[in-house]
Amino acid sequence: MIPTITSFEKSPDRGQGLARDMRVRWAFEEVGQQYDVRLVSFQQMKEPAHLDLHPFGQIPTYEEGDLTLFESGAIVLHIAQRHAGLLPKDANARARAISWMFAALNTVEPPIVEREMGMYFDRDKRWHQERLAMLNDRVRARLSELSRRLGDNDWLDGEFSAGDLLMVTVLRRLDGSGEVEKYPNLAAYVARGEARPAYQRAFADQLAVFTAATSKG
Amino acid sequence: MIPTITSFEKSPDRGQGLARDMRVRWAFEEVGQQYDVRLVSFQQMKEPAHLDLHPFGQIPTYEEGDLTLFESGAIVLHIAQRHAGLLPKDANARARAISWMFAALNTVEPPIVEREMGMYFDRDKRWHQERLAMLNDRVRARLSELSRRLGDNDWLDGEFSAGDLLMVTVLRRLDGSGEVEKYPNLAAYVARGEARPAYQRAFADQLAVFTAATSKG
């Protein structure tokens, strides 16, 4: 049975692959699992039919037979547990990779999302610059710690894992800010993720959705 | 082998059980697993020895023989996967419970933490009230969605799970704000979690650390 995920009908980032379906697409590509995509509009996301799938009215969701999942982290973990390629076989290494999954989503992503929201929603406030300095400090603290731990390694803990997959997508949200570039090892790490064939296939697929939506007007 | 976790030497919340070791303590108590606690000071948390355990210099960490884990979500999942009591046996129900773990930490907790940080760090700013209104709106949106989904159920999806454990600890961070109380079913849900004997044992243990630290001066 081929699972179906949901994705934005029209990507708010204009196909830059920053929406959370990108993580799930990339995971599917890494493990070689086919999937279907159902596109939803912003309006549909807040309607009861979608809220039944995703209580918080977001994308992506995952449907496979009787099973419905939400939260990109949970979906990537589900894919990683069912297929080889995203988690080490050794039990301890596997648990450590899962630590990195949670670290990406609960420790590194929140200050990055806050910075994004500050750039978007506070831009016209008189206190924008003062607050942006605080937001940047929080992001830089996390990047500095992450850079220290990564060191000269290719990936966060041994082979590429679902932890790296999520971390790379989280760091990509800083594209254009110049923040990641201050840490050459982190910039190389993100580039290493983006160079993976599975990433490139996933990126092309989500971009094609945006291109098609745009050409239709 | 008895695992060892780290916890604040002196709880910044004065023993209210809002630090992230509470989640792990509660999980251990639910499954009946003994554990040891090593207390760390704020200074020690930023020193190399602790950063080797936790790249972001936080608590809790989890050590068991050769295995070191960090991130409360990952540690709770590790405990839940090794012991009965925190995840359903049915594979689909198990995957759904894990969705709720990620939802608690990646969707519900971030706006609650932001609100806390706003209360703490922006309190003396001239724009505090304007910003607090925005922060409250974000928290209320999530609570409203969560309340809608919970409905009249005792727990988020069938039996009590690690997803509920994390969600209750996340909602407890709003204690004193009056926000959860606006949704009677959510307030009852938190009370139901707090009434569990395992919760009460974990709470008493973390409070005892604070009480001892205080009595020592």
Automatic annotation (TrEMBL), chains A, B:
Pfam family membership, one: GST_C_2
Domain GST N-terminal: 8-87
Transmembrane segment boundaries: none
InterPro entries for the chain: Glutathione-S-Trfase_C-like (IPR010987), Glutathione-S-Trfase_C_sf (IPR036282), Glutathione_S-Trfase (IPR040079), Glutathione_S-Trfase_N (IPR004045), Thioredoxin-like_sf (IPR036249)
Stretches assigned to the GST C-terminal domain: 90-215
PROSITE patterns: GST_CTER, GST_NTER
Classification via SUPFAM superfamilies: GST C-terminal domain-like, Thioredoxin-like
The protein's name: Glutathione S-transferase family protein
